Amino acid sequence: MVATTLPSNDFRVIIVGGGISGLVTALAASRFGIRVDLYERNTSIKELGAGVAIGPNAAALLEKLSVGEVLDSISSRPVDRVNLIYRHHDTGEVGYTGKLNTAKRSFYCHRADFVRTIASCLPSDQIHLGKSLKSISQDPHSVTAFFEDGTSVTASALIGADGIRSKVRQTWNQEKPIFSGQIVVRSLVKMAALPQDVQNYCKHGNVWVAPGKKHIVAYPIQRGKTVCAGAIIPAFGGKEWEESWKARDDEIDMANFMSAIEEFHTDPKTMFQLGESTSIFGLYEREPITSWRNGRILLIGDAAHAMLPHQGQGGSQAVEDAYVLGVLLAAASNSHTPGLNITNWFDVFEQIRKPRAEQIAIESRAMGQAFDDLQLSAEGVDFLRKSYSWVFITEALDECEDQMKKSFGPNSVEWENLQKILETSPCREWTEDLSTWVSNPSQQMNI
Prior knowledge:
Blueprint: E1 2-4, E2 13-16, H1 20-31, E3 36-40, E4 51-54, H2 56-64, H3 68-72, E5 82-88, E6 94-99, E7 107-110, H4 111-120, E8 127-129, E9 133-138, E10 143-147, E11 151-155, E12 157-160, H5 167-170, E13 178-190, H6 196-201, E14 205-210, E15 214-221, E16 226-234, H7 254-260, H8 266-273, E17 277-285, E18 293-294, E19 297-299, H9 302-305, H10 314-333, H11 342-373, H12 378-392, H13 396-408, H14 413-423, H15 427-439
Parallel strand pairs: 1-11, 2-3, 2-12, 3-8, 5-14, 12-19
Antiparallel strand pairs: 4-7, 5-6, 9-10, 10-11, 13-16, 13-17, 14-15, 15-16, 18-19
């Protein structure tokens, strides 16, 4: 067994999982002056899947982490402030257009492009590949991760960012993800391959809403060169599909799939017929657990709060987790005994993030049901408008400050440390901008 340890007075944090939540946490921590080491089971940084939508609540935080410009180079931004256009499934006619307050606070990109870009912003010696987690042990002073290759690493804290089937979570919670009964079939198609009239409106994100628990989403990625189309439909073939993007064209019964979306307008069906890469996976979620923390171990992202994709908030909530955790790790590292009181900081994180993330998971489930029950009726449109408005207006840093006051007191050393960090970091400007924005209804979202 090859073990890695640090002197007892060092504050060290390790992350298990190299997806969106793990990489952005490593980035956020580094921006606040904290080194973390990330351990990924694959031999390269990659993300299976297709597109990912990053909402304005998360995109603004990524910009404050100084990666906005580099993400612009791989992404598609909303045009004319349009967030999503909701269409009737059979005629393709527009039923509702949701608009953002600004075109600069959300984007669409390929998941693989996103994770590679974030990874490129980190020092290579902080990312450790081919490290499949075997087990974890902890004592009052440290936590140790053991890997299948016989190595181990000991640290002050361990962040479980290893997805919906988290091995970290399984060390104290063995409940399995719950299959929703629906699957997603996603296809990537070159924009230039589509008819010109379809290209014209595919510069925006579009949703075709149908009864029978079916809808199709399509949005541009890779600076408008590619369209990512996703059909959410009831599972076919009598199969409970895995929560995995590994199934490819030769494993998908395309004739059966096209029959399942037969009632949809020609345009979205054409996207799947012309698609160059198609993947399929099952939709799963998890019931909330009592705590995301177990001693010195903390869950984030899908490992903590896996949700259905009907609000497109899975990636965004991972980013919110990462940003808040980066701030708190920086505050913890500046305390007199950072390694000893890390559990207190994890409790603060959970008090900030757990209510919001779990409520968004509930809203996402309700959104899927509303698509089926209400579709684009007046009541359905009103539901869309109200559901998105509170999700997109994030107050992550305000919530962080409020909870710090409650947990440690406004005159505590911990509170003073947090103030120093915020005053010397980009997030201070964002918090002030947000306070002005939220207090001014004329600047808020028209959705």
